User: What shape does this take?
Amino acid sequence: MSRKTTPQASGPQIYDVSGSYWHIDGNFESILHIKNVLETSELTVTPVLWMADGTEYDLAPIPLQKAESVSINIAHAIADAPSSITQHASLFGSAGIRYSWNWRDAAIAHVSTTDEINSLTYITHASAAIAPNPDLTNAPNRNNVVEGMWWLHTKSVIPFVTFVNTSKADIPAHILISGGNADSAKSENIVVGGGQTQVVKLDRLIQALPVQSDVGGVQVSYIGKPGTLVIEGGQEDFNVGYSSSIPFMTLEYRQVRKMVVPTSVTFAAVGVQVGVPEARTQFPQDTTFLTNPKGAGR
Assistant: This one.
């Protein structure tokens, strides 16, 4: 995760880093990973879990040593929760951390969710500390748009999008699914309650496209403060042990004579495969990945 230079604050303030989606249904196990980014100071961090209905569960504060990392099994944490929490317990929700420091980004968090039996895995990141961020707290509501891409790696793969509302207000969102044909699209409206988490499977919308396609786009828009609705996605097929993330990019529009001005966008990713791929990844026969100075495969 890239980070900008962090401005100094006038004194210690409480920061929330939230919005990391977790789920513990079936054979899935979700682990909350927390790191103290400070290399010269200790930091006390409070892990926080939100159930799907928005119920907040603050775990015991954890004193972290310099640059220390810890991991928390979310299912175990919920099992040990008091009855006031367990009556709201759900199989999915969101996670984050809370801490007090002189500036933002003193700690980071993410959730890794894995089904080892079916070879499925996902990673979701908690958003940057959003409070008390004056740029966000004082920002007016606006139309926020993110876009991603879905593809049917197999006939039985199911793409999905997760929505985590990090605010206390309900947020309406519009989901637009498009196919390979620009004129082929379907949409759906949802409302994500304050603090709540929702999961929308896209297979129904994809199957309803006027022109069937194995690849297309997904656009989500909502009216609210930037970043208050954390949107991530993924795809999974239990039959072949396939899982992948759907990256979303925030669209920044600049209106010039009512037209969108093109901007330069750079993408980068890490993912290196060496040797003969497994048959279930469905690469062409005789495919071999080799390392070389240019990082190419054949």
About this structure: The chain has two domains: 13-135, 141-252. The CA atoms of residues 53 and 115 lie 24 Å apart. Confidence is low (pLDDT under 50) at residues 1-7, 130-135, 253-259, 293-298. Helices lie at 74-79, 83-86, 134-137, 203-207.
